[in-house]
Each structure stands twice: as structure tokens, then as C-alpha cells.
């Protein structure tokens, strides 16, 4: 049965019967409760099992439907039949994933094609409906397709990475995998995968060296020899593209060549290079330091920075000629590169302008004539006639077919002169044979209900008879249409193959459709008696039919057949009457009948005799009797009101026992069948004497068996004593002997007339299983005489006692570390029944770690059979079932609740082995930084977790001076403000221990990263005696040229990262005077912007603002005092070189200005050209046919009608891509012509182009075709 079957679907056809009559034969049918089916009565004793509620194969895939048929007799009898209904699957369940989202961690740089995860979806359906295939839900990941990163195996659901993943490029790859089944239609669902790409140490540190390029190979720095120990002279900055430990950098100074000890050191995490002692004259004037920058990855990657330090005396002015020349050359090269880019831009824009003009000219010259520019042009004449016309003006036709049937077109044709089609009707033929009134015939008419053509004899006796005929005809037709039952007859004992009827023809079925529609015949009881030949549709006898065996003594005997055909399901009822033949002779119940007659009986006395019976029916069963000739007896035959025959022997004359004690007679019975069959019985007449015989029993001792708990009134035995005397001498009564004890007479009673011994108490085998009863039979003669017998009543055991279970000892609770074989409980069972009914077996609930061990008979021990784990199962409800061996078996259950007590076998566990915490420096003391939480699977005190620090030293101080942990909550507090410059990483362990005995514990590692805050302002490093004077003094010769470095401001910042990245800025002079000096943004070098002259003040006071990049930025101000001095020496070559470089730079700047002007001019010309073209296109009036359909022309017509094509919606946008397409139109010949002869055949179309402003068109064109910089 399909699980989506419609309500009311017929599942099975059920017929039932009861051979009894009246209320005893009235049968009602019921079903098992709580099933989605019901019984619908179609005919008497015929039911259909139909569906009444929805099926769900995933909930119940098979129903065992029990049909119970119960009659209305008393007591009621019933029978059952089981129908197994299997529910077939339909695709009504989509594949389902266990989770809506999965998180996957994959290390970067994985090999291509590696397996990273497996998705699995479960489909509750069956077979192909449960066959799941997987696919990616495609999307874009940045600029690339998702399928270029990962793929999924369609069958296994394995997800593969197609290329190495890069954490620096893609930290999270989120996508969906679709699971679809193979059902029709297929159902599917999606699951989200979050693939986190874990960082690997695959990027070496990158150096950030200040300078024009920002990445020069060496860092040069001037250092005054006067600086003291600890003075910061330079700082190496580096970054790492990785993250976490892989990006945590440390700095290390490489030892100098030759093993000489360097007077400098580098900060491990800051990269600051400082002096370890005061510099002296022995130190080399040029120091080359190699700083190794190393990350903390596995394996560690490194980079090397070269730092060149020039040691200078504090009074010496550093030369700058070479530096100025180098800077000028760099600026000139940069300007040349800009010129090249500008020239390329001019050429590109100019070429675009020329191509635009050429394209416009080509379009204007090649445009077709305006007539029909947007229309279809002239259509071609194909056919015409006087009654209609066809016009077709469409240049292109497209048709899309959808749905299950043929495609639907909009073309319709009407034919006013076509005749109506034939009407199919079903006609019932009735043949009426008319007979004249004077013929004397035709007073009645007979209708054969199973014929297709009916013949009736009627007489024209007026209007009343005609109405009766009409009503009879209508009733006949209605009965034939509504009845589905056909009647046949066949004699019993017919040979195999005997023709019964043309069942297919009579049911109105075609022979060709018998096999395709699964024609079959079903019959209750003997289904092999009749069969149908599927080739000719004839019902024939298949095996011997015995009417007496089939129907017994029933007057009517029929075989009820159900003819079932499918597609669609139809049920026909066919009745085959089995006609009786005289095949059974009369039968007497006994071959010899004994008649006892007192010798004192008078003539004409009647003595009833047992008549014969005939299994046939009708006249074949009517019997006549004949008695053999004699002088003492005659035969009396009477027919009762219920058509039964009663025969008796009539005494003609008195008997004399002493003369003839016995008479032998013969009784013959003959039926009225053809041929006649007879039977003979012998009558033995015994003449009885007076009361000279006591009653006698057949045997002196009888034995009776009866089950215990039998109902009161149940007959134990019926005694049948006899007395050879006649009359009162032969009448006797039954009674218990006076010696019978009261306990017997209380349980039994005897009927004095019939001798029936019945139960009147409760019999219990377990109390008394044998009763011995003495019975007396006393006649009524004078003197009375008595006969005796003994009855042994054995009580049979019934399984009426449920086994008893007793728990005699319990050892609870059970420790979870208890050993195998530990006794949990002692159990005893008993059953009061005997034999197999008292044999008891014991069993346990399955899947429990216990078993029953038999110690003695009916005694068991409940022992431990497998290991206990309280954390998995803390309590077991063990059900002990005791079942006896009776039929039906009785059972009893007892529940033992076994509680498992806890032992401390689980240490507290943390969710992760390591936690990473980020805390900003300068936190308030006592602030909460993190909470650790461990879970202990044990119970009570074994699960009580306390937390503590694993003490260690952090530098010179104890860990407990930095942090503390709350013993109960696991909250970690910072006890003092943390300083990033002092401590960047605080790594420690927290221990979690339970309160068990012995206690168990575990540790978790916390990595507390102290995040840098911009809490340190830049510190100035000014050379001098103190190394920290408030101003830097420097003498400068007036003869220096532009770009000459006259001084350098040095500063350091104790912070890190952006907070330590310094920039230098020259504050404007007081009064707005333009200073001839400038400062390097990141180098701090002060250089001249031009050559100095006599107009410059001899003392220059410069304020240099040093600012970091933190939020908010912190600053420091350095004061530089420059003294300009005249020099008698000739200008240095460096000054001339600087002047030449400055001139070349100015010339290049002028060229750049001209190139920029040229670019702007050409671009403006291009834009104006495009604007002008767009304005002309949009302001020009539309030409004829630009938005219309053009001229339509007569195509075809005929004399039978016209074709019309009507389009309900048309949208047209006018563009230059080609002529628009019109539709097929038709005009009826009866329509009036259009006014004007020249326009009579034209097709008018009312399409309009939407007017759009030229400005909007220009903007849309520019947005689509250009990128405006």
C-alpha cells in the first residue's frame, strides 16, 4: 500500500458466513483497534477493508490487521483472520543532517585533494528514495568560484580541498553542501560548513626599515660618541603576516666577526638597539650590526636586519653632499616615471576619441532606410478568397511547449458550416412481442434479468396496462443497472469441464481485457470447485461438487463467487446454485432398534421408532415406510407441522411374554427420487415382565476427568442405569449414597431423574485432586430395589496460578568498582500449579550488566556480569520475569532498582587544554580577566571542584603576585596593573582538583597576552654630555646647498607596533616666515630646502614635533638650534651637484604640468563628442515604422472561416538592434473596412516609445561604458 494512498482506498475484500440460522447466524465484523483502516459493508456478509487515515511508512511500515467475526448467539462464537498490510514508501522525507552547521579546522598549506571532512545525511525513506547524493551549493569566494577551493564526493559526502589554503588570504571558508535523494521528485536539504584555516608558520618576518623606499637592505644611523650606557640609538621594526605565536617576534644581536664584544645590545621583544656601556675612542667609527628577527613558530623563521652605525664626535657636523645627490637622483627618477604614465594616458584617451568618431560615422552610413526601421517590412501574399483573409507579418516565430499535453497555440479557427460531431450513446434494446387481445395469450410477461435483450409478452388492455408495462420496464432497467450479481445453476456431481455460464459476457467484460485487468475469481471455502477460462470467458466445473458436503441439509445451496478486476477495481458477485440429484439412499441411525413392551400393554399402544434420514433435499428426501408382515404389530406414520415425519409401532393384539418373549421385524424406508433408493432396519421387540429386576449400571466403577475452576452447572458425567422390569418397576431415581461425606455433596449434586452429576462448588486442584462418589439407583417397584456404582472424579490442573517472585535479600547500592560476580540480590520463585504449569523459568531485562545464577531449584542469585560506570548509567531498573510452562503461559514480574554508588574515578576535565586570553595593559588591580571551568563526571563530593594556581616564578617575582584564581568559581583576577613593556606574555597553569579520596586533578594552561596601549610618549635622544639636553645645537656653513643634512633628531618609543612608529614634523616658525629647512617624515633628518644666503638669520631655532601612531597619539618636541656661519672656502662639489639636481627636478615638474593639461583637454573633447551624439539621437523625431509594425499584407483566406491571432500583452523597446517582431493577425470578412482606401488593408498598432531625458541617457551610457577617474 503506498503511504500516500488516498483515504477510502480499498485494500482487501472480506466475506464471512455462519452455518447457523436466526440470531446465531447473524455475524458482525470488527477490526483491531488503533489501525488506520475500517470495514465498509458492501453486501450482506461482504466487507471492504478501506483506508481511513493517513499512512506513514517511517512510523509504521507494516500493519497486522486482525478481523474478528462474532455471531449473536449465546454464548457468542467468534473467529479471527489476519491481514498483513505492508506500507510501500514514497519520497516524502528530505535528507536530514545531524547538525545544521559543522565547524572544521584545516591547517593551511594542505596538499591538494586532501580529505578535510565528511558530511552525512540520513533519509528516513527506503530504497532509491533514501539514496542520498551530495553537491556543493555554488557561490563566489572573493573573485573565484567555490568549486575551485573545495569539492564534495557525490556518494560518500567526503569534502576535499582542491588546492592549498592560505590563512593569510582566507581565514574562514563558509559554504553549503546540498544533500538530495533519488526520489521523484527529489527532495533535498543543505548544511553549512565553516572551514577555519589554521595558521602555519609559513611567513618569515618582514623588516620595516625607514627610508625613501621603506624597505632598504640596511638601516644607517649616526650615533654620538658621547652617549652613555643604556642609550637607545636605533630601533629595528618588523612584522609577520602569520598570527598568534607564529607572529610573535623576538630580536637577537648576532655576534660580531672575530668574537669581539659589541658595545650594543637589542631588546628581546622591542627591537631597540641600545648601548651596553659608554662609547670611547677605541670603538670603531663604523659599526655593522646584524639583528636576527625570529618568530615563535614551529619551525621558527628568521630575517636579518643590517644596522650601520656611524660614531661621530659631538662637535663634528656630518657631511650631506652624497646624501643630497642620492636624494635628488631618486626624486628625478620618480618624476620620469610619472611622465611615462602621463604620456601613455594621453595616447589611450586620444585613441578612444578617434575610435568613437569612426564608429559613429560607420553607423550613420550603414543605417537602413527609415521606412519600417522598427517594423517587420512587407509581408508576402500567399492565398486569398472571397470569404476571409489571413495576414502574417511576423519575421520570426518561437514556441515553447510546457506541461504534459501538446503545446497550446493562440491561433484559433472557426467554421460556421461544419456539422455537429456524432454523439456516442448507449442504447438498451427491449424487444416487445405484441399479442392481440382475442388470442388469449400474453396475460403476463417474464423478464430474464441476466440478458442484454429482454423479451416481454404484453396485451393492449388500455392505458393502465401500458403504465404498468412502462413502470415494469423502468424497474427492470434500474435493477439491472444497480445489481452486480449473476445467477447460474449446475447439478451436483457434474464432471470436470461442465459448462456453467459465459461469465465474462454476462458481466459486460471484453475477452481481451480479462488478462490485463487481472480477472480473477475468489470464493469463500472451496475455491477450487469452479474456474474461468480466460481465453473464452466461460465458467466451468473444475472439481467434484457434492451438494451434501457443501450445504448439508440446507434447502438452498449456492456457491458465492467474487469476480475481481483491476484498473479500475471492480467487484462482481456471482451466485452458482448447486441442484440436488438423488445420489444418497435413506439411512437409519441404527441398523437394529430395540423396543421394550410390557406384557401387560393393551392393543393399539404406540411405540416410537427412529426414522430414517436422507441427505438429499426436495422430493429426493421424501420417504415412505413399510413394515414386514406380522400379526401383532402395524406401522403408524404421521407428518408434523414442521414437515417432519414421525413413525411409531402400533400393538394390534396383546402380548404374552411366556409365549413369545421377543419379536423380530423389518422396517423399510424408500425415497421418491428417480431411481428410488431404499434402506432397511431391524426391529427387536422385547416383552417385559413384572418388577423382579433391580436397576443396574453398565459398570461398577466410572472415571471422570474435569478441569479445576470449571463453572457451576458443568456436567461431570451422565449416568445411565437400566431396569429390566416394566412400568413402575423399571422407573428409578439417582441419589448419593448415605456414606458420601459432606465435602463431596457440597461440591457436586446429582439429578435424580437424568443421572447428571453437575458441579455446584469451586474445584481447586491445589486443594483436592480426586473425589470418590458412591451412587444409588432405586426403582419404584414393590419392594423397591436398588443398584450401586462408584464414580472417581479426577480434577485436572489448569494453569491458573501466576508464578510468585520473592526478593529475599538485597545488597544496595552497588559501588561502580564492584567486582564481577558480586551478588546483588537473592530471588526465589514458586508456582502452585503442577507439572509443566508449575515449571518456572526466570529471565532478566536485556542489555543490563547483571545475570541470574541458579543456586537451587527455583532459587536464583542476581550477580554482576559486566563493569559498572555510574557516569554512564547511575541506576538500573532490572525487571525479573518468571514464566511457567503452561499453555497459555502465565508470567509475573518483579522490579529491582539497582543504584550505582559513585567512586572517585574521574578527574576534573577542562573543555580545552589551553586558553588564550588578551588583556590590555594598565588594567585596574583586581579586575576579572578570565574564568576557567572544569567538569567532573563523578557525583557529590567527588564532583566538587576547587581551583588553584600552579605556582612558579615570573622573572624575579612569584606568579601569585600577578594573578589569583577563585577556588570555587574559577575566576582569574589580575592583582596589579600589567605593563606590556615589562611583560608581554604571562603563561601559567590553573589546577582543578576534586574533593574525592584520593583527590584527582588536572591542569589547564592560560596564555595571557598583555596588549599594548599607547601609554609612552616618544623619548628624545639628544647627543651631548648628558645625553638628554633640552636642545640640539649645530653649526651650519652658509655655503651648503639644497638637500644638505645639517642635523638629525633621534627619538624612541617604549611602546610597540603602531604605538611605537614615530613620525617627525617641523613646526612653522613664528610670524609665518618660511624656514629654509625641512625634516624627514620618518628619519628625523633636518636638511636644507634651498641654498642659504645672507638674508637668512644667523641663528635658526627649529621646533621638531615627534609623534607616534597610537590612539590617541602622544608627542614630544625637540628644539634644534642652528648657527649659520660664513666660510671662506669655495663651495663644495656636493653643493653644485645638489643645485643641478634641483634644476632638473624643476624642469621635470614643468613637463608634468603640460602633460596633465593635454590629458584634460583630450578627455573633455571625448566627453563633449559623446554628449553631442546622445543629444542628437534622442532629440530626432521617430521615423515612420520606427515603433510600429509596418505594412501588413493579405496572406491567405478560404470559404470556411477565418483565423485570428490575438496577443493580450505586447511590450516593445525601440533600439538599433533590429526590426521589432509583430504577430499573426486575421480579419473577418464581415468587418467593415477602415476609412480611406489606401489604409484599408493596413494593420494599425498603438505602441509608443517612452521618452527619456537626454541627460539621463548620457549618464547611463557613461556609467555603462566608462570609468570616470
UniProtKB/TrEMBL annotation:
One of its GO terms (biological process) is homophilic cell adhesion via plasma membrane adhesion molecules. GO terms for molecular function: calcium ion binding. Keywords: Calcium, Cell adhesion, Cell membrane, Glycoprotein, Membrane, Repeat, Signal, Transmembrane, Transmembrane helix. The chain crosses the membrane at residues 340-363, 1153-1176. It is a single-pass type I membrane protein. GO terms for cellular component: plasma membrane. Residues 1-97, 98-207, 223-320, 489-588, 612-697, 698-805, 806-910, 911-1020, 1036-1133 form the Cadherin domain. InterPro entries: Cadherin-like_dom, Cadherin-like_sf, Cadherin_CS, Cadherin_N, Protocadherin/Cadherin-CA. Coiled coil: none annotated. It is found in: Cell membrane. PANTHER family: CADHERIN-87A, PROTOCADHERIN ALPHA-6-RELATED. This is Cadherin domain-containing protein. It comes from Eschrichtius robustus.
Amino acid at each position: 500500500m503506498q503511504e500516500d494512498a488516498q483515504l477510502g482506498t480499498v485494500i482487501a475484500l472480506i466475506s464471512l458466513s455462519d452455518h447457523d440460522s436466526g440470531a446465531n447466524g447473524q455475524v458482525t465484523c470488527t477490526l483491531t483497534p488503533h489501525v488506520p483502516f475500517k470495514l465498509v459493508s458492501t453486501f450482506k456478509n461482504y466487507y471492504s477493508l478501506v483506508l481511513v487515515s493517513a499512512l506513514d511508512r517511517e512510523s509504521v511500515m507494516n500493519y497486522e490487521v486482525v478481523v474478528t467475526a462474532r455471531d449473536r448467539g449465546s454464548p457468542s462464537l467468534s473467529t479471527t483472520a489476519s491481514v498483513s498490510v505492508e506500507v510501500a514508501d514514497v519520497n516524502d522525507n528530505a535528507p536530514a543532517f545531524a547538525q545544521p552547521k559543522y565547524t572544521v579546522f584545516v591547517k593551511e598549506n594542505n596538499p591538494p585533494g586532501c580529505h578535510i571532512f565528511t558530511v552525512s545525511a540520513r533519509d528516513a525513506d527506503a530504497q532509491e528514495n533514501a539514496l542520498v547524493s551530495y553537491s556543493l551549493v555554488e557561490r563566489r569566494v572573493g573573485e573565484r568560484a567555490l568549486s575551485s577551493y573545495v569539492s564534495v564526493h557525490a556518494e560518500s559526502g567526503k569534502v576535499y580541498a582542491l588546492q592549498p589554503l592560505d590563512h593569510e588570504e582566507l581565514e574562514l571558508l563558509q559554504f553549503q553542501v546540498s544533500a538530495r535523494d533519488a526520489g521523484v521528485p527529489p527532495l533535498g536539504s543543505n548544511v553549512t560548513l565553516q572551514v577555519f584555516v589554521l595558521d602555519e608558520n609559513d611567513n618569515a618576518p618582514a623588516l620595516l626599515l625607514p627610508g625613501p623606499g621603506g624597505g632598504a637592505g640596511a638601516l644607517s644611523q649616526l650615533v654620538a660618541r658621547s652617549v652613555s650606557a643604556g642609550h637607545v640609538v636605533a630601533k629595528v621594526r618588523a612584522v609577520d603576516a602569520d598570527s598568534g605565536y607564529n607572529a610573535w617576534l623576538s630580536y637577537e644581536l648576532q655576534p660580531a666577526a672575530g668574537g669581539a664584544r659589541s658595545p650594543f645590545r637589542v631588546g628581546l621583544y622591542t627591537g631597540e638597539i641600545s648601548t651596553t656601556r659608554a662609547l670611547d675612542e677605541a670603538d670603531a667609527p663604523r659599526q655593522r650590526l646584524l639583528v636576527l628577527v625570529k618568530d615563535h613558530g614551529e619551525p621558527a623563521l628568521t630575517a636579518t636586519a643590517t644596522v650601520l652605525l656611524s660614531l661621530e664626535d659631538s662637535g663634528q657636523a656630518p657631511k650631506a653632499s652624497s646624501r643630497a645627490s642620492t636624494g635628488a637622483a631618486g626624486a628625478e627618477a620618480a618624476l620620469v616615471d610619472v611622465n611615462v604614465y602621463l604620456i601613455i594616458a594621453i595616447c589611450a584617451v586620444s585613441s578612444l576619441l578617434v575610435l568613437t568618431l569612426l564608429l559613429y560615422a560607420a553607423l550613420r552610413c550603414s543605417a537602413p532606410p527609415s521606412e519600417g526601421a522598427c517594423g517587420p517590412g512587407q509581408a508576402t501574399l500567399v492565398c486569398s478568397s472571397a470569404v476571409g483573409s489571413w495576414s502574417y507579418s511576423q519575421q520570426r516565430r518561437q514556441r515553447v511547449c510546457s506541461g504534459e499535453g501538446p503545446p497550446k497555440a493562440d491561433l484559433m479557427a472557426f467554421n460556421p458550416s461544419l456539422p455537429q460531431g456524432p454523439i456516442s450513446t448507449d442504447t438498451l434494446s427491449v424487444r416487445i412481442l405484441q399479442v392481440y387481445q382475442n388470442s388469449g395469450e400474453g396475460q403476463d410477461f417474464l423478464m430474464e434479468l441476466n440478458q442484454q435483450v429482454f423479451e416481454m409478452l404484453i396485451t393492449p388492455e388500455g392505458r393502465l396496462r401500458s403504465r404498468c408495462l412502462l413502470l415494469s420496464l423502468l424497474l427492470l432497467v434500474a435493477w439491472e443497472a444497480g445489481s452486480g450479481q449473476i445467477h447460474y445453476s449446475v447439478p451436483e456431481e457434474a464432471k470436470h469441464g461442465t459448462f456453467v455460464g459465459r461469465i465474462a459476457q454476462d458481466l459486460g467484460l471484453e475477452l481481451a481485457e480479462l488478462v490485463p485487468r487481472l480477472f480473477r475469481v475468489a470464493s469463500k471455502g472451496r475455491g477450487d470447485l469452479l474456474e474461468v477460462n480466460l481465453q473464452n470467458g466461460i465458467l466451468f466445473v473444475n472439481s467434484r461438487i457434492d451438494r451434501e458436503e457443501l450445504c448439508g441439509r440446507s434447502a438452498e445451496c449456492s456457491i458465492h463467487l467474487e469476480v475481481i478486476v483491476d484498473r479500475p477495481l471492480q467487484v462482481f458477485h456471482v451466485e452458482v446454485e448447486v441442484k440436488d440429484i438423488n445420489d444418497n439412499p435413506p439411512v437409519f441411525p441404527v441398523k437394529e432398534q430395540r423396543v421394550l413392551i410390557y406384557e401387560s400393554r393393551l392393543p393399539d399402544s404406540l411405540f416410537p421408532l427412529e426414522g430414517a434420514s436422507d441427505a438429499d433435499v426436495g422430493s429426493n428426501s421424501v420417504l415412505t415406510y413399510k413394515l414386514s408382515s406380522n400379526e401383532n404389530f402395524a406401522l403408524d406414520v404421521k407428518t408434523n407441522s414442521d414437515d417432519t415425519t414421525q413413525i411409531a409401532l402400533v400393538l394390534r393384539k396383546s402380548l404374552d411374554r411366556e409365549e413369545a418373549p421377543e419379536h423380530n421385524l423389518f422396517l423399510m424406508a424408500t425415497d421418491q427420487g428417480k431411481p428410488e433408493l431404499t434402506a432397511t432396519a431391524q426391529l427387536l421387540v422385547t416383552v417385559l415382565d413384572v418388577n423382579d429386576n433391580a436397576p443396574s449400571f453398565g459398570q461398577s466403577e466410572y472415571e471422570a476427568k474435569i478441569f479445576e475452576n470449571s463453572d457451576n452447572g458443568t456436567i461431570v458425567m451422565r449416568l445411565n442405569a437400566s431396569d429390566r422390569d416394566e412400568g413402575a418397576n423399571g422407573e428409578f431415581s439417582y441419589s448419593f449414597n448415605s456414606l458420601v461425606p459432606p465435602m463431596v455433596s457440597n461440591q457436586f449434586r446429582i439429578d435424580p431423574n437424568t443421572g447428571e452429576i453437575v458441579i455446584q462448588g469451586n474445584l481447586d486442584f491445589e486443594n483436592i485432586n480426586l473425589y470418590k462418589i458412591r451412587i444409588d439407583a432405586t426403582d419404584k417397584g414393590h419392594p423397591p430395589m436398588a443398584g450401586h456404582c462408584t464414580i472417581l472424579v479426577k480434577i485436572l490442573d489448569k494453569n491458573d496460578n501466576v508464578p510468585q517472585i520473592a526478593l529475599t535479600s538485597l545488597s544496595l547500592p552497588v559501588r561502580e568498582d564492584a567486582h564481577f560476580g558480586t551478588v546483588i540480590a537473592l530471588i526465589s520463585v514458586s508456582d502452585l500449579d503442577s507439572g509443566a504449569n508449575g515449571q518456572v523459568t526466570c529471565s532478566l531485562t536485556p542489555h543490563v550488566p547483571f545475570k541470574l545464577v541458579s543456586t537451587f531449584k527455583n532459587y536464583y542469585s542476581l550477580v554482576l556480569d559486566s563493569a559498572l560506570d555510574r557516569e554512564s548509567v547511575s541506576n538500573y531498573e532490572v525487571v525479573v520475569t518468571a514464566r511457567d510452562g503452561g499453555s497459555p503461559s502465565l508470567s509475573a514480574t518483579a522490579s529491582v532498582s539497582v543504584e550505582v554508588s559513585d567512586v572517585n574515578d574521574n578527574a576534573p576535565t577542562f573543555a580545552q587544554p589551553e586558553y588564550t586570553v588578551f588583556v590590555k595593559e594598565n588594567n585596574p588591580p583586581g579586575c576579572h580577566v578570565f574564568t576557567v571551568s572544569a567538569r567532573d563526571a563523578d557525583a557529590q563530593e567527588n564532583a566538587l571542584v576547587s581551583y588553584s594556581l600552579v605556582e612558579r616564578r615570573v622573572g624575579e617575582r612569584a606568579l601569585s603576585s600577578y594573578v589569583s584564581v577563585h577556588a570555587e568559581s574559577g575566576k582569574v583576577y589580575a592583582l596589579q596593573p600589567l605593563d606590556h613593556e615589562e611583560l608581554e606574555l604571562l603563561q601559567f597553569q590553573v589546577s582543578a582538583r576534586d574533593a574525592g579520596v584520593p583527590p584527582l586533578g588536572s591542569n589547564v594552561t592560560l596564555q595571557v597576552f598583555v596588549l599594548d596601549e599607547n601609554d609612552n610618549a616618544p623619548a628624545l635622544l639628544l647627543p651631548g654630555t648628558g645625553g638628554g639636553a633640552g636642545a640640539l645645537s649645530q653649526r651650519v656653513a652658509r655655503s651648503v646647498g639644497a638637500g644638505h643634512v645639517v642635523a638629525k633628531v633621534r627619538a624612541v618609543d617604549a611602546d610597540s607596533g603602531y604605538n611605537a612608529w614615530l613620525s617627525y614634523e617641523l613646526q612653522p616658525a613664528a610670524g609665518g616666515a618660511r624656514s629654509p629647512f625641512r625634516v624627514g617624515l620618518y628619519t628625523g633628518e633636518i636638511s636644507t630646502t634651498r641654498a642659504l644666503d645672507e638674508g637668512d638669520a644667523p641663528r635658526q631655532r627649529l621646533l621638531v614635533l615627534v609623534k607616534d601612531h597610537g590612539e590617541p597619539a602622544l608627542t614630544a618636541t625637540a628644539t634644534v638650534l642652528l648657527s649659520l656661519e660664513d666660510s671662506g672656502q669655495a663651495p663644495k662639489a656636493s653643493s653644485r651637484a645638489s643645485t643641478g639636481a634641483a634644476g632638473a627636478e624643476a624642469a621635470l615638474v614643468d613637463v608634468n604640468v603640460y602633460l596633465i593639461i593635454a590629458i584634460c583637454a583630450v578627455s573633455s573633447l571625448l566627453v563633449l563628442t559623446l554628449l553631442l551624439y546622445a543629444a542628437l539621437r534622442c532629440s530626432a523625431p521617430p521615423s515612420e515604422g520606427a515603433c510600429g509594425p509596418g505594412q501588413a499584407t493579405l496572406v491567405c483566406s478560404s470559404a470556411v472561416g477565418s483565423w485570428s491571432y490575438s496577443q493580450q500583452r505586447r511590450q516593445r523597446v525601440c533600439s538599433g538592434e533590429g526590426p521589432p517582431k509583430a504577430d499573426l493577425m486575421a480579419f473577418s470578412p464581415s468587418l467593415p473596412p477602415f476609412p480611406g482606401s489606401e489604409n484599408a488593408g493596413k494593420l494599425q498598432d498603438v505602441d509608443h516609445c517612452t521618452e527619456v531625458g537626454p541627460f539621463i541617457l548620457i549618464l547611463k551610457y557613461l556609467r555603462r561604458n566608462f570609468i570616470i577617474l
